[in-house]
Amino acid sequence: MFDNVWLIPLFPLIGFLINGLFGKAIKEEKVIGGIGALAVLCSFAVACMTLFNIISLPVHERVHNVPVFTWIKSGTFQADVAFLIDPLSCVMLMVVTGVGFLIHVYSIGYMHGEEGFYRFFAYLNLFTFSMLLLVMGNNLLLMFVGWEGVGLCSYLLIGYYFHKKSAGDAGKKAFVMNRVGDFGFLLGVFTLYWWLGQNHGIWTIQFTELAKHAELFQGCTLLTVITLVFFVGATGKSAQIPLYTWLPDAMEGPTPVSALIHAATMVTAGVYMIGRMNFLYIQAPTTMMVVALIGGATALFAATIGTAQNDIKRVLAYSTVSQLGYMFLAMGVGAFAAGIFHLMTHAFFKACLFLGSGAVIHSMHHALHHCHSHDDAQDMRNMGGLKSKMPLTYGTFLIATIAIAGIPGFAGFFSKDEILWQAFANPHHGSLNILLWAFGACAALLTAFYMFRLVFMTFHGECRITPKAKDHLHESPMVIVFPLIVLAFLSVVGGYIGMPKILGELLGGIPNYFEHFLAPVFEFSEEFTKAHAHVAGHHSVALEWGLMGLSVLIAFVGIGIAFVLYVKDTTIPAKFTSAFPALHRAVYNKWYIDELYDFLFVNPCKALGNFLWKGFDVVVVDGIVNGVGSIVMGFSGILRYIQSGYVFNYAFSMTLGAVVIVAFYIFR
Amino acid sequence: METLVMPAINFAAIMPETILSIVAMVLLLLNVFVPGEQKAYLAYLSLIGIVVAFFSVVSGWNAPLPMQEGFNGSVLQDNFSLFFKAIFLISAGLAVLISDHYMVKEECNYGELYPLILFATAGMMLMASGTDLMTIFLGLEVLSVSLYVLAGYNRSNIKSNEAGLKYFLLGAFSTGFLLYGMALTYGATGTTKIAKIASAAALDATLSSNPMFVVGMLLMAVGFSFKIAAAPFHMWTPDVYEGAPTPMTAFMSAGPKAAGFAAFIRVLMVAMPTLKADWSDLLWILAVLTMTVGNIIALSQNNIKRMLAYSSIAHAGYALVGFTAGNGEGTAGILFYMLSYAFMNIGAFAIIILVGKKGEPNNNVEDYAGFGVKHPVLAMIMALFLFSLAGMPPTAGFVGKFYLFSAALKSGYVWLVVIGVLNSAASCYYYLRVMVYMYMKDPVEEFDWMKLSPAIWASIAISAVGVIVPGIVPSIILQLAQKAILL
Asked: Would you call B425 an interface residue with chain A, using a CB distance cutoff of 8 Å?
């Protein structure tokens, strides 16, 4: 039934090989882009079939390991190339291939005429392949291969414009920060494997096997450490405090990359990983608290920065960090299904937003280029009034913005509200719940504000570029607009498959399809929570309604503030900044976190590196290496002389060898 | 009157050899009628022969015992020999693919090349499936005589002449040792059949301490060591490899070396398990010497063919590590390694052929400066082969070395493995040096070569796949190798 799932990662791999090896020779952009997009479309088709197959099975037969081949086998250690097909990986497959396909199509238009067009599509396909390995791998090692692969592709694509120093630096920053996280991930794999094998004789890194033995971890003192180091990996990949600073810089990459890798898929890998190992996390209350707090804090913290940025992509980048924070908040309060649900809806609307911003930038760039202006095409202060010029982009962008702001009826509302409710009502964190909820609610307010600030600054009001340039603004071609429309559509309807319980009951008993679908994956955690909950998690329905109303109100308040500040009376922001210059500067400069990291880590590391290089490496290491090297080379030179070239010398050496051997055996 | 008993002939057991020999003889006849510029047709015909022989090898896999045995027990086409035959055929096929290009360039495109390659391959096959010392010797001579000619094939080139002559003289000399060893073994046991030698030694415990038997083993080991180029019987290798036409160097380093191992393994492990304590000591010493001598001298080589010659000595040393282990894992490791080595070494030589000019004035490492800039794809593939030779993952070279060393560890040879790993580390120097020149130095002169023929592209592509796929999915090859061990 699932015998063909290996095709899903195979198609993008083939696409990568074709474009990577022959792309330069093919030259024709339509062919290259077509191959890239077609590869992902094929994967999407197989993924759809897989999803239907899974749905057609009874609920308890929905977890399948599909072995492909044995990869490494050494003693008790075995790692297969095998795929895990269950509801969770199906959801991820749909997101990665579905949204991925749309972004591939978009890129054909967006990257038109760029140097290294084939390189872009090769990397994009390689990324898709790695991401699919990550979500489909049935063991930690294969997941890690994907985990590293997406990191590599992210690095390559951030630095796509490698002749720009800022792009190269951003790539390096992303790579180094991810490495810090990856180290945590590896430590987690080692410790987990060792502990389970050492104490229970079960040597495995396979998810289903681990899940089967989940009870064994009860009372494992190391579990907190294991889950925490895995979480360190997640903070690196998913840009959470303290390893989030690479993501805003990653906006140096082309916009489709930001949409695919740095919004919809790769950065959600950490969330997926926790979801995949929920049975471990649920048993480590301390870790759960850390995850929830870091998630909530990141959601709020990044949102504050987002309010003061002027670069359209940077606003979206901080928004992504903030939304990822929501997902971790959900994971930390044990609302795994809600977190994955938000992952999915976020992929829809954030991809739509990024692609929309790309369309805007594209158009702006084009217009500015035409009248030889050197203004920044990404700075919202140069935009304004684009609504009439780019109606389709505006429409889709607005829908996605409403979705992320959490207005009822749109996808973001359902997922975000579920998370906020769970943060408030979960049985894990006692009185901390109020704080977690407050984090989320404040972040929601800020989100509504800065997103509408972005919309108002970009699409409404007066156009702030020269009239001459303005004439060159135009709507993007269909290949760019089509993905926007599909994603906007999904940003609306995507939420209805995960209707909150009380809303569903009100509307005549519509169940939360999404949560039911994922239930088999999170079964253990559910049972565990029921058995170990501190408080009987019973809250009144009235309270839930009240909180839902409150979060809707918050969203409208945020939009209202943005409306007043950026449409009604546009002088207020300037007055505000002059009234609180220090605050504005701090927010505008991202709370000086980059500078702090430079001071705390980067500069000391550089100094240490310099010392090790000039003091230790050059003198000690090179001395030893060169010394050994010259001794060996000298020896090698001597041995060379024995190789005289004369046959009789060679024959003599053979005879001598034979005589010595025989003599040794006879006289020993 | 006694009836004449016909020996039990079973042609199925020598089917691949038969096919190759017939094709080779047909080619010899055809060669007379094929004009000089159309010798490539002979290459195609010989490829067809190789492919057909390969199918017969595949169809013989896992055959029942009566189908394997032939000629009154002088040959046994078991999985072990079939695996080796596949290696020989792959080496021969790749060698044929890279030959035409080279021979045209060097203007020595005489058609005899292809029949000689086929005869050599048939000889190797007999060595692998021979279960009688005489059969093995026969195979070895068929192989050697063909190789002497092939080494000196470029008769207008003085170095090639020198290579052929040196190889012939020293080869004849080493054959003396081998034959003497066989004679002593016959003297001690009264038989040349491998199975009977084993049973004789098993029945008579005193035989293990009989000097005649032990010295017989030792002298045969010397003879085989010459064939696999183990130190201190390796000295012909650099001169012959450097002087021989490059495609033949590639061929010699892959096929005949594997054939030497095939016969060596069968003789020691099947015929003389009673002397295991003796021969594993000997192999230990040979392995250490071979690895170390090969690697250390390779460090200071400038000519890339000569460097790969020493490298091939070192690789024989690694394989000897697996042989020393004396267990099934070790044998499977050797099988795996010989196959991988055929791919990576012939692949590397194919690229050397492409870079080399007529008369090979530019085979030095310095001549590869800037190769990575001028020909990025070929340089990348060359880097792949070099990485594999150096034993880095995810290439077949790494996996093969891993199996060899882990087999030795299993048998408790910790120090041997330590020495092997150190050697492997040292070898990175000279492999990576080529890469440094390819990628980090500016080109000195233009790379001008003849148009790349599809044949040479095919050989490079096949080799690259043969290096990468077993590196990532080792189990497919390893499972076959495990079914092919002798024990």
From this structure: no
